[in-house]
Amino acid sequence: MNDIIGTMFSKSFMDELLKPQQLYSHRTMRTVLTRLAHASIMMLNPASMDRLYELIVMAFKNQVFLCPRPKDLLLISYNHIDTIREFVKDTPVIMNQVNETHRRIIETYSSLAEGEFQLLRQTLLLFCQDMHVRVSLFLKNKIQNANGRFVLTTSGPVPHGIDVPGLIRTFDVRGREVRRIEFPTGGSYSSPIKEGCFELHGDRVTRLGMNVYTVDNPEQTHTSKAPSAKPDDTPNMLAKEELNLLARLMGSMKAENAAKEEAGFWINLFNTDREEEETGAAGGAEEPYFGVINIQAMQDEQAATELARIAGQFAEQEEEPENHSCNKGDDLLAMMDDL
């Protein structure tokens, strides 16, 4: 963690990030994440790195999506930085790097207007809008639907500085209130809580930006363990029928006389597996009643070559637009190579 945080909060890296520039592409962001992770002794294969990137983007998207007001993006970032401080509290050099970066972020963004924060939030959501990866933790907590989209709640405290909806007030030309009309809001809203601290240290109030695996979950906190039930040894007939259906779909078993005797099936995953044939030969003249399903699990060289050719065409088509772009992120990646 010290190696990764030290690289991420280095002065040269922060200087490049805080320059006014266009938003990076997903490809560039994934490359930056890979090089940050490999700044330490940790090495991840491409598949694991892709899953890590998807998890990070979906967690970040959820935080930006649920942000009460655009300016609270700073509070979310400060929660991240406060958590990082806990990782490096025993390393003064890196702690100074984190604090210096925090001061620069305060200096850069604290003076922005509400409209600029709204534009920033909209840009971040546009970056994440095509990502709908399902995360088991979000699905379990019912903050994400099965289609990968997040749930927006219609209850809870309203943002700081905002009145609770449900009331229309009418004023005359002198500014005096002359009438009040209430209307149903379709939700259960409450008064805003206190505003979070935007300084170097303080209570951020919001829970967004904190570790989603350690934040207390009300559903988990208020549940009790169910009494242990005795194991049921009754055969699962549904599972047996599913296996029978699978066998019929694969063309290896007849559905006739299913009630009189149970038919079984074997599966050969490799052409070199002759165990079933040897077993049948050793049993004498009596043929086994098992049907054999042969599945080609060996890699087909011809099919693999064709797939590689098609993938190469897609790669060439994707690389063509990059050559005409302004090569966003190249300076950042080149700088990271020197770290």
Walk me through this protein's architecture.
By secondary structure, the protein is mainly α. The chain is built from 13 helices and 6 strands. Strands 1-4 form a two-stranded parallel ribbon. A two-stranded antiparallel sheet has the order 2-3. A two-stranded parallel sheet has the order 5-6. A hairpin with a 5-residue loop joins strand 2 and strand 3 (177-182). Residues 216-231, 252-262 and 282-290 have low confidence and may be disordered.
Unreliably modeled segments:
216-231, 252-262, 282-290
Strand content: 5-15%
Mean pLDDT, all residues: 76
- Termini separation comes to 16 Å
Q: What structural class should be given to the helix and strand makeup? A: mainly alpha
- What's the total count of β strands? 6
Strand order of the largest sheet: 1-4
Q: How much helicity do the residues have?
A: 40-55%
Shape: globular
Order of helices and strands: HHHHHHHHEEEEHHEHEHH
